[in-house]
Amino acid sequence: MGITGPPAVVSKFTQGEKPRRCTTNPFNSIKFFVLCHGLLQFSQLLVSGYMKSIISTVEKRFGMTSQNSGMLSSLNEIGSTVFIVFISYFGSRVHRPRLIGCGGILVSVAAFTMSLPHFIMGRYVYDRTISSSVDNITDTCQLTPMAQQANNETCGTDSVQGDYHMLSLLMVGQLLLGVGGVPIQPFGISYVDDYASNRNSPLYLGILFAVTVLGPGFGFVLGASVLRLFIDIDKTAAGDIDLEFGDPRWLGAWWLGFLMAASCVLIFSFPYFFFPREMPKEGSKDHQSDSNLEKKLGESKGKQEDDVTQKMSLLQFIKSFPRILVRTLRSQVYLMVVLAQVCLSALMSGLTVFIAKFLEQQFSVTASFANLLIGSVHVPGAVLGILMGGVIMRRFSINLRGSAIMCCLSIFVSICAATPLLFLGCATQKVAGVNYPLNSTLDIRMSCNQGCSCRDQVYNPVCAASAIEFISPCHAGCQNVEVNAQRKIVNYTNCGCVPDPAVVKPGTCGTGCYHLLLPFMFFLTLTGFVATLCQTPSFMLVLRSVKPEDKSLAIGIQFMLFRVLAWLPGPILYGSTIDSTCIRWESKCKTKAACRYYNLNLFRSRYIGLQMLFQCAAFLLFLMAFYFLQRDLLRQGKQAKPSTEIQPPPKECEEREVLMDQGSDSKSQLQV
Q1: DSSP 8-state symbol, 645
Q2: 657 and 634 fall within a common domain
């Protein structure tokens, strides 16, 4: 008895059982992987959402049109589109956690790259009445040799090329952001689905899908925070900043959020280099019931089906991809649903990029407050809609036909909810010489400021008591300035274009309809909530309308179409639409730069109208998908009619008697 004890202990370790300290390794836990991936995915999408929140500030800083800024926002989709096919091929051939970590590091490098222009460029120069520089240039009406010289804008070749170089850094950063983000979500989801238990996998994937919406939302909140800080806060002392937050010339610290988000992405990327290529299946040591055995048999069968793709070389896979693409697109239900989702994605791509700018222009709010509204009100409404759509489908066990009906109803109700947005807005403020003729002259150069030598490209708006705005105190004919003890401008006086007793205040007059902001946000959030109810049922229609062996590639094709047809052209289309409503462009070195004033009624009707156009197109496509689905179900019903429908008793008895009179072959046919 005493001899048999030690061999038993030795056999315990020689049989391959790992020490307890190895089983507690967090990098062998799929739960820890879900936690890390949720943090990385959140920080990666934080960068994307933050970029959209600062787009209006970037336009003003670099003198860009909305079309150019929309093109800048779409550049990250180019890198994603190029590599999306290779992701479908390399699915399980690579060390997925390490590739995810490399993608995260590339995203971090991209975010750092996009912040570089601020450190390379000089300080932000804006038009101001009182300057601390030696020449003491003023924007008031005074005819002096210095003012006459200031009327000419100095533009050199170096300054123009420098602006292009700065924009090229933003473009490179956007391209790297798209390339780095390619492996993060697909490889992370497939890794979780492979090694999570069948019971916990939907929960883990639901958490990751929720993060995909929360990440951009927090990006808008981050933008709201940093835009309250002055752009040159690292270069200028606080006492030397003579602009106040809310001034139309104010630019926030757009670069600071990139540094913060890039640091988060970099930190959350390192754990992926310690995860194994393969880890034990969650719950694999538990007792396997019959249902678990059936599920494992189904998984092995799916792996056998995937072996056909796994044995292909990369060249063979690329050659076969067009054939698989055509075969998948031949499914009419799949094609209609994907095209409807493309319309909704194009809507969201333009809405998320320019909605903050829309609120700034329509309701005269700051960029910080507009981003705060989007991140804390509109995005949570969309998240709630996605969750409610899944809950409704599970609660009522909605089938494919019900999913199509649910998609049609949600889009129709969202169109009704969006209709009031066409009327909830403001008219353009009266800007003398721009859209309001002063002294019967629609020109910024008028008789009242003819001898002032005002600069045409200046932007230092002031507001008269009659709610008439001038683009500068010089164009208002103001000759004197009243300042307080802190050298802050209080009033402009002795203004030739304004009645003598009236004073002119610094700053824009605004649109004067701030009270409409609350109902506008209500209907905007309601529209987003109702429209996102169809996300879960539409994805169920996609997954059930293709062959099981084509399911993974069908999802890849779906997201490729999203990028090519929606996310890439969507912001450019919205930007061009917004530019068509501009009535006063900024002039920068005799070229058109950022827009200073919009026709707000035209802005609102075209911006919201384009949104409703995409909604109507999606509604019609979902109706067509329902029609094709109904037709296919009827055909299947006719083919299965002898075995599924209850026949009249006399006929059923006759058939049974005929089958019973036949031999064993007929008996086997009856069993089938």
Answers
A1: S
A2: no
What does the alpha-carbon distance between residue 618 and residue 635 come to, in Å, rounded to a whole number? 26
Region of residue 648 (left: phi > 0; alpha: psi -120 to 50; beta: else): beta
Q: Is 648 exposed, middle or buried (0-12, 13-18, 19+ CB in 10 A)?
A: exposed
Q: Which residue has the tokens 């993974």?
A: 552
Q: What percent of the chain has pLDDT over 90?
A: 17
Q: Residue 394's pLDDT is what? A: 74
Looking up tokens 């698989």 gives 324
- Would residue 592 count as lying in a domain? no
Q: Provide the pairing of β-strand 430-431 with 468-470.
A: parallel
Same domain, 262 and 233: yes
Q: Would you state the structure tokens that stand for residue 591, as one six-digit string?
A: 């070229």
Domain membership flag for residue 3: no
The residues near 476 (Cβ < 8 Å, ≥ 6 apart) are 141, 432, 449, 462, 464, 470, 492, 495, 496, 497, 498, 504
Q: Which two tokens stand for residue 212?
A: 């995909």
Cα–Cα distance measured from residue 88 to residue 556, given in angstroms and rounded to the nearest whole number: 7
Q: Check whether residue 330 and residue 448 sit in a common domain.
A: no
Cα–Cα distance measured from residue 32 to residue 196, given in angstroms and rounded to the nearest whole number = 11
Instruction: Answer positive or negative: Cα dihedral of 78, 82, 88, 93.
Output: negative
| 3-state secondary structure string across 207-245 | HHHHHHHHHHHHHHHHHHHHCCCECCCCCCCHHHCCCCC
Count how many domains the chain has.
Answer: 4
Domain boundary among 506, 534, 560: 506
Confidence class for position 550, pLDDT limits 50, 70, 90: low
- Alpha helix locations (H) across 375-443? 379-396, 400-418
Helix axes 400-418, 535-544, angle to 10 degrees: 140
Range of the domain at 174: 23-125+153-279
**Same structural domain, 405 and 538:** yes
| Whether 623 and 501 share a structural domain | no
Residues 435 and 398 grouped into a single domain: no
Cα 646 from chain centre: 52
**657 lies in the same domain as 633:** no
- For the record, the structure tokens of 136 come out as 């003491």
Look at residues 446, 477, 506 and tell me which one is the last residue of a structural domain. Answer: 506
Under the phi-then-psi rule, with left for phi > 0, alpha for psi from -120 to 50, and beta for the rest, what region is 439?
A: left
Decide: 494 and 479 in contact? Cβ < 8 Å.
yes
Tens digits of residue pLDDT in 3-60: 444 444 444 444 444 444 445 778 888 888 888 888 998 998 899 889 888 888 888 8
Phi, psi of 383 (to 5 degrees): -60, -45
Distance CA 65, CA 430 (A): 23
pLDDT category, 202, cuts 50, 70, 90?
A: low
CA distances 483 to 124, 239, 490, Å, are: 23, 16, 5
For residue 88, the model assigns a pLDDT of 57
Residue 295 CA: distances (Å) to CA of 272, 280, 284, 299, 609: 29, 17, 13, 6, 49
The answer on 533 and 498 residing in a single domain is: no
Confirm whether 629 is domain-assigned: yes
